[in-house]
Inverse folding.
């Protein structure tokens, strides 16, 4: 159990995204970052003759972990919500979970940790894709600044 | 639902810690990092006359988020497990969750997000404290290097 | 003095980017992440009546710090270099440094730390923009996988 | 060139540490985090028969990178400076740079990237050790809370 949903419900300003959808994405991202960090390390513990084949998977795990962690932090901040920035980071996370999910899927049959990690990446990628249409597209950024919470009523 | 416990169960080398205990700590840390990031941002959205009083809380939130994220990553790696390093980082996380939990608790009655964040910090601090006796103490580090998974059988 | 350039020169595989350009971007990103973290904290230390006006700046600082740190890590990995992933993360960092640079620039006259942070953001944004044309565009990804270092000769 | 020293000089509140010493530590930490990330990836690009021997080094690199990044962020925040928290995190970073420096030093003759990374770890460890006596020891924490910048004059 995480506090993500409850934290959203007690937020003192308006959030322009459905709470359920947003908390699902954040939880998927933090869980995926953990799975990727653990999968990279599990790969490093595989027998010596397996290691070279796993080098790319390890690297994709590390990129995905770093990007998911940063994206979860960005989505956990709602003040001054800037759709262009959020969208660009979400797009990077979609690419990272896709790349890592594909890498891990190649080793799913040999390594159970890769199968689980691929599953976590795919779920996260899907949750991110579901979020995109709800982020105000860059083009409509005209009205964005005025929606920024900390600028209201100051 | 996270993948932490399942990732531990599919780890290809031995882990010198009870899986349940370890996965509980990792999940508490990632959840606490998220709650702290969200709480810092919620504080920034409070009315102007509340902000100065919350400055310290925001700073403690940010420290706690960074430290919990790093600690979760360190605990998610088991290869070459080094008790001194793990213990030192766990001690830092105990201090960070204690400091932030105390800070947030001061504002629990005024701000529901601070109450929730304090609760997450306290739970995480407790989970970390429960882990410490199970980490081989620094003094016994003599036998540590030989337990390092990737060095065995290579 | 950082080790970035030297680390690039001792890399055991080929790197498809000019070393000078790449090390400049990485150094700009890590420096910008530090400046943003420090600027957020400096804003929190400003007099009470200044704080509300700085809330958005603080939030942009935090987003920019997280995104620059993740981007520096991704660019510091060259194994299995995936142009689409790298490009998406670089685009997110361009947006983050632009957003934060603009936010800080609004307070440059009142706060010297905002002026310095805006300068760091602008330099980093420029370094990132200079890198983009040298990242193989997504469309040309066909030949990408074969350039991935760990997949060669395996 | 980084902005660390300049950011310190424009900080709007008092900092209870010598600016030169502090900025040197922060710069060493961010540089070390980058070197460790790059060294882990360089290790992954070494020939297949070298990889198993480097697994532990890679893991130590990753731990050290995560811990140095978090420590640099904590030291870049001066508001509400809490000596116990700062000291605990600095101690963890001393252990991380020591462990990783030792690991990399074992491969210094074979791998130039390990030699450079070991050097960065050792410099950072030394800079951190030089800082410790200047952090008010935990025992003297009595007067700490009152030094916290955001609590003054509020």
């Amino acid at each position: 159990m995480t506090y993500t949903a409850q934290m959203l419900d007690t937020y003192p300003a308006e959030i322009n995204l459905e709470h359920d959808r947003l908390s699902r994405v954040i939880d998927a991202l933090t869980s995926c970052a953990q799975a990727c960090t653990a999968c990279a390390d599990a790969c490093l513990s595989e027998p010596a003759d397996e290691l070279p084949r796993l080098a790319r998977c390890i690297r994709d795990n590390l990129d995905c972990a770093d990007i998911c962690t940063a994206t979860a932090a960005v989505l956990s901040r709602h003040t001054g919500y800037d759709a262009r920035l959020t969208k660009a980071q979400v797009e990077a996370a979609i690419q990272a979970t896709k790349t890592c999910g594909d890498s891990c899927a190649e080793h799913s049959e040999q390594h159970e940790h890769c199968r689980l990690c691929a599953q976590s990446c795919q779920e996260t990628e899907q949750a991110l894709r579901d979020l995109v249409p709800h982020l105000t597209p860059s083009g409509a950024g005209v009205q964005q600044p005025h929606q920024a919470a900390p600028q209201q009523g100051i």
